[in-house]
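Recap quiz, item 2
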Amino acid sequence: MDTIIQQLFNAAQLGAVYALIALGYSMVYGIIRLINFAHGDIFMLGGFIGLLLTTRFGWMPFYLLLPLAMLLTALVGVTIERVAYRRLRNAQRMSVVITTLGVGIFLENLVRLTVGPETRQIPAGLPSAPVVWLQQHLGAFVTWDKLLIILISLALMAILWLVVNRTLIGTAMRAVADNKDAVPLMGVNLNLVIAVTFAIGSALAAAGGIFYGQAYSIDPYMGIDLGWKAFIAAVIGGIGSIEGAVLGSFLLAGVEVITVAYLSSNLKNGIAFGLLILLLLVWPWGIMGKPTLKKV
Amino acid sequence: MGLRITDLTKSFGGLTAVDGFNLELGDRDLQGIIGPNGAGKTTVFNLITGVYAPDRGQIQLGEHTVSGLPSDAIARAGIARTFQNIRLFAQMTVLDNITMALHARAGYGLWEAAFRTGNFHRQEARLLAESREHLARFGLLERQREQAGSLPYGEQRRLEIARALATGPKVLLLDEPAAGMNPREVEELIQLIQQVHRDFSLAILLIEHQLPVVMELCREVQVLDFGQTIASGAPQEVVRNPLVIEAYLGEEEAPA
Amino acid sequence: MSTKPPPEHAAPPPELTPSRVRFWMVCALILALALPLQLSVDAGLFPDVLNPYYLHLLTIIGMNIILVASLNLLNGYLGEFALGHAGFMAVGAYTAALLATKALPSAAALPPVLGTCIILVVTLGGAMLMAAGIGYLIGLVTFKTVGDYLAIITLGFNMIIVNAIQNLDFVGGPRGFTGIPKNTNFLAVAVCALLTLGLLRNLIQSSFGRVWVSIRENAIAAELMGVSIAKAKNWAFTIAAAFAGLAGGLWAQNQQFITPRSFDYIKTTEILVMLYLGGMASLSGSILGVVAYTLLMELLRNLLSAFAPQLAEWRMLISPLILIIIMLTRQTGLLGNREWRWLRPRQGA
Ligand SMILES: Nc1ncnc2c1ncn2[C@@H]1O[C@H](COP(=O)(O)OP(=O)(O)OP(=O)(O)O)[C@@H](O)[C@H]1O
Ligand SMILES: [Mg+2]
């Protein structure tokens, strides 16, 4: 019983990180139909920005450090969109996708060459004592940082939901997702909407990177693996859908935690991709995605 | 070897785009379908060619039931079409657009192509000659090396008809072939269709917005409105039918 | 009728300008150069001029040409966005390695030149067959997916293949496969690369190639001309996979050591960079892209390490930048949609 609850928390923590990344994939795809292959590396970069901030400004409390790292990463995300993607918005779709691949590799190598290829951990900013209440009542050993990571992630997702559904810019984002061509006619600044989307996606990914660096560790290439996992989660949930991205993330994390616990950790990537392929074959639009009809 | 359609029906969500459509198209017939915008004409073609699966009804080509088959099988069974919004292979040459259409009769296999055997060369020469013959018939031979997408609009429409014919169909479906043409081009097109109808042994079904084209070409037309056939018969009679006049007047642009 | 000049990237008319330089002549020339080159390097002649390292570079170029040209079949001619080429390469590499070490006698036990030839034919043939088989199966399951999803699925299969190999102990798992005999040299790679180019060229300039390009241009129209899209695509996937397997087989028997990691996403991306640098739907572009990229990387390595040895690694930052710059400035690559004359066959002989 206690191990099951512990595994549940493990899955929730991993799922929260996946969701923070997956949301960026999903939002960008929803708005400009682009698979941003560099997004996993933005997540990695966010982790390293967090690491740099903690090592340079050790006095900074976590609740300042997290938003600062998110802000900086958001700036990077917006800059990349401005410099590399915007000019290709009306070009052949694959050109942009390839560009995102290039940007991703660039970021990986940049971090590897400047910071180094080693695996690192972000020094604890969150308390790592066990949650006494859970220990006493459920017999489960769950640390505070794990619980906090899950709670803060959920809070960030709730804020995102409010922004998308309850604010002006969110309405504009949904309008662009529905019909990109009609939006400029309605007096919405398309560039602004897309920039905001990249900013939000990058900021959430940065939070994911920092949490991941606290809970596990970071290295320059982690964006590939985790980025892909999160992407799979987004596709499983139905890419373009915010709720779907969150759902898919927790689902995938659950499957992975079970695989590691009862089968072998070597199999978890294979199983994740197998799941993706299976799902796309029987359910090409994901759980919450909308099918598109061919027009003749 | 004509086309027989009974009770063809298709809905999109709540909208019934085609409702109980029937057609008897004889061996060498040339019939027309007219109707206001959104009447369901293109959808009929999409159903015949298997782009959409019908909700109900049957499509028979000669003895064979083709409804339910995949598009490519229907095409190979002998139904070819053109598209309302031209779908050429834009970056291929005019010649290759036609030669491609002969793929089913290429007469050589993968290994023969990979190693360029004698048979490959013979068959390729045959395909090339046949394609040029088609192009010459449609007055496009001089354009053979140009990219299909760079042709003027009228010639693109002609090329699309030529390509459809190159597959050797028994039934040819033309979706608004005169759209976007100037009066002189329309006149040429009418002659071209008559010539095709005379020279090839096939049946033609024609969708057209411009009534004069239909009046001149077809012995029989059906008028669709909101998916239903509201009139059918000789074009001269059909256009005098009050239902038809009303359907067209319901729209802004009344036919000439 | 007025004749408009064809647009810049129009495929040049095949038989308007019959080329006097034919494909076989180029092959003969390259082989005539390759054979003495290989022999003199093997014999250690002129060590100052004929540095074995240059031969190694040429060998890498040859193998990459096979990879890039075969991926061009999918991404350039067929117009799909396949991202799993390194996976097929891995299948070929491991198959060849297994055949060479476990199934076949060593070259020393056989007559000198002929023995190596037989070993190569068997190992490379096996590599191609195995990769083709996997490519066929993957093509079979993915036949419905297009565009973004095909990219995802092919990359997914690449990762699954790498992951599977990591879990197979009898090929060394994550530690890699060691002790593969060196059966390949530059000459063998040159022959294979020329063969690949010739076969791909022949296929592209046939009814099969026209069907593939028509799918790229307008899949619905192609389907309504009677093309079974699934079948045509599956052929292309199988063929491209076979050649990727060939490159893998050569790779394994040239490097003598392979690990699953050498065939992951990074390798696929490297192949993509060379492909897009050279240009889509052009075999000439594939050759040029590989040569330009490889030489550029070498140049950068030498240039950067002239300043400081540790700087050489910074060239890894340049390669993605090249990709980005190509995409932003010249999406057709160096030679997109155009072909050198010797790679255009005569038509309708
Ligand atoms: N794939 C689809 N999904 C939903 N609705 C569709 C689809 N295809 C057609 N329709 C609808 O079915 C109706 C008939 O369309 P169709 O294209 O057949 O008309 P049409 O008679 O060809 O008109 P036009 O003269 O404008 O070409 C229209 O209301 C159209 O919006
Ligand atoms: Mg129509």
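Chain C touches chain A through 39 residues (CB under 8 Å).
The radius of gyration of chain C is 21 Å.
End of item.
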